What we know:
Layout: H1 3-21, E1 26-27, E2 39-46, E3 57-71, H2 79-91, E4 97-100, E5 103-107, E6 112-113, E7 117-119, E8 122-137
Parallel strand pairs: 1-2
Antiparallel strand pairs: 2-3, 3-8, 4-5, 5-8, 6-8, 7-8
Amino acid sequence: xxEQTKIQAALETFFKPFATAKSLPxxxxxxxxxxxxxxxxxxWFPSPVKDPSLGVAHRRYTGxxxxxxxxxxxxxxxxxxxxxxxxxxxxxxxxxxVVKNGITVNIETTPSVSGLxxxxxxxxxxxxxxxxxxxxxx
Length: 138
């Protein structure tokens, strides 16, 4: 499995139990789901790979793991959506290490949470999680 695919799988697998505990579906990239209830969507934005070390096969993968939380709560205020986004930011707090498939994905910074957005009947916020994964071949 290619490293970037492993990174994406690690982050999605780490997030899935949280969504399951909230009884909310997760819509993954390249799926044709059209949910009609509160839900999460995840997106993955890898940055260019860096080679930070001389003399060693060292690849540094960085990027953004984006979680969108959609809720059908118009006219109910923003407290519930803010609370959910706060919980997600805590799950992916700075310093968290996600280990899966022989790699470690590190959460680089405190996640960023967008302002409140509107799409059709949904309110939503975007949570951006910055990650780094160093792969060294000796």
